[in-house]
Amino acid sequence: MRDKIMRIDWGQARALLCAGLRMDWRGSFSQLMTTHTGKRRRFPAILLVLGMNMLYSIFLAALLDKSPDLFTGLVLSSAGAMILVALPVLLDFNHIVISPDDYHIIAPLPVNSKSFYAAKLAHFLFFVTILVGAVSVIPAVVAAFRFHSVWTALAVIIEFWTVSVFCALLIIVIYTTALKTAKPGRLERILGYLQMAFMMLGYIGFIFGSKLSLPTLALPDVSAHWFWHLSPSYWFAVWVGPVAHGWDPAALGLGIMGLILFVLVGKAAFSFLSLSYAESLTNLNLKTLQGRSREVPKSIKRIWYKYSCPEDRAVLILTWAQFKHDIRFRLAIISLLPMILFLLWKAMSGKGHYQNPFALAPGGNNDVTSLMAMIAAFYPLGIQGAMQMSKSWGAAWVFYSTPSDYPRLLLATSRLMWPLVIFPLGVLYFILLTYLGGNALQALLHAFFILSLATLDLTIINIFNSRLPFSMENQYGGNTGRLYLAMIIMSVVTVVPLVLVAEKGYGGYAGWAIIMTIALIANWCLNKILVMRLRKISAQWEFAG
Amino acid sequence: MPIIEVTDVSKSFGPIMAVDNLSFTVEPGEIFALLGPNGAGKSTTIKMILGMVRADRGTIRFDGNEITPSDNNYKARVGYMPETCALYENLTGREYLSLIGELRHLPGSALRDKADKLLYMMELSDEADQMIREYSKGMKQKILMISAMIHNPDVLILDEPFSGLDANASATFKEILREQARQGKAVIFCSHVLEVVERLVDRLIIIKKGRGLVTGRPDEIMHKAGRDTLEQVFNELTGFRSAGAVASDIMNIITRQDEPDKHER
């Protein structure tokens, strides 16, 4: 008879944990790049995520280095670490918590809820811990040198881990509470809203973080601003506060509150994550599958048939059905929406500060334009990335056994971005830029330029990462990996030209025409390269199922 | 002239030789079966015939012309039904057939009409607008069968077509295959149901570890081997002991009294 401590069968929990980790590792082998021969290099996406997290942690190390004291450095840098860990958790590793398949597999076996929970929590904490490890190494070393003590390195690691684990546990508790309390009909919508809210916090954190890293911006006094008191990074950093400030009763109160919350959140996560919770998820999955599809109006169908090729229509049928019924695909799309909300808020609050590239004025800034460029690049890249994966990836045999044209199918996914994303964004940008700059023509031209950069991004990522729609297995770490890859391409292709335009202006309509012509020629050339490459590599493709 | 001609074809996946120097031909109007134990290389052979997987060596010809994976004229004349029910499960049955129709460049209105009628004939009309995920295995098989035939192919390639079907659907499928052959079309399929194969096919090949062991008509093969049933020939050629002996050994292992490990005592 196996020992049971805390009603957990540790043998079962260990077996479940090992199986979960093994599957994650095998499932993390993403194929982010396609070689010129069409063979795909298999690369563990989790390593890319860890590498990029390590790269971003240089900013956190810089914050620690610039901070006047360890306390301020810890509050700021661990807030950044929290976001760097939370993003992959939300984008990729939420499957550990919200996998609807568990119940089917585990329920018929003699596994009790507590053992199931122990395995799930250990699995989740394992990933959080390795993510924290990647984020904390460089800041810890820098802190040790900056504050001349090895103990500060340890303080950094403990602080980063505590804050990130707290944040990750909070995500579990919020998801599971929603599953326990929400009515089944509303549950899926609530999960969508939660994902949106979390992503919103993440994006704001990223944007705020990128501002902090600017050398011209002074670091905030974290003790003086009330909103820093709401950050878990503040509560846990309080425990090293005496080193810098001596005992502050108010800060100590926040520290004690942080510890109590940590215990409560851990306890709640412990009791919520169980087999009955997995059953709720399975029921949710079944509910979303019921119901019949609605017919598209005939007039729209007629227009669509007139201006589309069979490959376009095939991709649309697939994409629309996945969006309607695949919760993972829908959450991936929904995750992008908060950026639009953030843009609207930024535009509303930024009137009067907008730097119109047709008429440069002192004191103007490019915050709104930069955000527009980010969204214009992220949206098509994000959606197209999500369109590559499916649980039913094995069904991609249809592409290989039918006389469909692979390059056309691949280009159809890009073309679909025009009516679905790029055109609606263009209209939104035109309205916002007109509101901010007051000149409709200039707004239209500037919107055109931003969107031409977005199509460049899309073409470039297609050159590097082309695959048939919904033909790839979900890969753990793949979403975050693609997000980071998109960020790199976007930084080079979108940010650099936009910064140049923002600094120098278009120099009138003639200048815009020249710049736009260059952008269009670049688009045309890259498209030619893409088509040539697709013809070459797709001839070598084999069905992997 | 054979419509499909497989000559000295080999395929390996890393160190594993899936298909080893395999050769056979299929004539128009013929029902041809690929038989073999699990892992014999039947599905790989089918995928190579379809151009989904490239052969390492050898040639595969269709109507006298060597096929290549990018040969869409060939793919337009072939219908395929895979072994596993690999379908986009978030599509409805009707949506899935629309997808197949678009990929096969079938005209929209004709496709809809054909799909509706075939769904009715296969008793799927009521479920046509439900997602495939909700279908039973037999219903999924029917959708796969419709999608393999909807474009009226010259060659029908089916991987385990009878798995999961009820008796009525199975009988219908067999009649469809016979009718296809009567119309001069070639049918190639894999199956483990040897009684069905014995009665249905014109010719067959038995494969083991990627190698062709014997090719010919079922009655010829049985006669040459001096056996009464195809199952006996199959067991003998594939080196299978009697089912009773294997079952007995398995039961002995299951019913064995297991001693607990030392650390669990």
Plain-language structure description:
The complex is a heterodimer of chains A (545) and B (265). Chain A contains 22 helices and four strands. Chain A is an all-alpha fold. In chain A, helix 6 (150-181) packs across helix 11 and helix 14 (310-325) crosses helix 15. Chain A is globular. By secondary structure, chain B is α/β, with parallel strands linked by helices. Chain B has ten helices and ten strands. In chain B, a hairpin with a 2-residue loop joins strand 9 and strand 10. In chain B, helix 3 crosses helix 4 (108-121). Chains A and B meet through helix 14 and helix 18 of A and helix 2 and helix 3 of B.
Quick recap:
Chain A contains 22 helices and 4 strands.
Topology (elements, then pairings):
The complex is a heterodimer of chains A (545) and B (265).
Chain A: E1 4-5, E2 8-9, H1 10-27, E3 29-34, E4 40-44, H2 45-66, H3 70-91, H4 102-106, H5 113-146, H6 150-181, H7 184-212, H8 226-229, H9 232-237, H10 241-245, H11 249-272, H12 275-289, H13 298-307, H14 310-325, H15 327-334, H16 337-349, H17 367-386, H18 397-401, H19 406-437, H20 440-464, H21 478-504, H22 508-538
Antiparallel strand pairs in A: 1-2, 3-4
Chain B: E1 4-13, E2 16-26, E3 31-35, H1 42-50, E4 57-62, E5 65-66, H2 72-75, E6 78-81, H3 93-103, H4 108-121, H5 137-149, E7 155-159, H6 167-182, E8 186-190, H7 194-200, E9 203-208, E10 211-216, H8 218-225, H9 230-237, H10 243-254
Parallel strand pairs in B: 3-8, 3-9, 6-7, 7-8
Antiparallel strand pairs in B: 1-2, 1-4, 4-5, 9-10
Helix pairs in contact in B: 3-4
List keywords for this structure.
heterodimer, A: 545 residues, mainly alpha, two-stranded antiparallel sheet, 4 strands, 3% strand, globular, B: 265 residues, alpha/beta, 6-stranded mixed beta sheet, 10 helices, 10 strands
| Amount of helix of chain B | 25-40%
> In terms of per-residue confidence, which ranges of chain B show pLDDT below 50 for 5 or more consecutive residues?
none
Q: How many helices of chain A? A: 22
Number of strands of chain A: 4
Total number of strands of chain B = 10
Compute the CA-based radius of gyration of chain B.
Answer: 21 Å
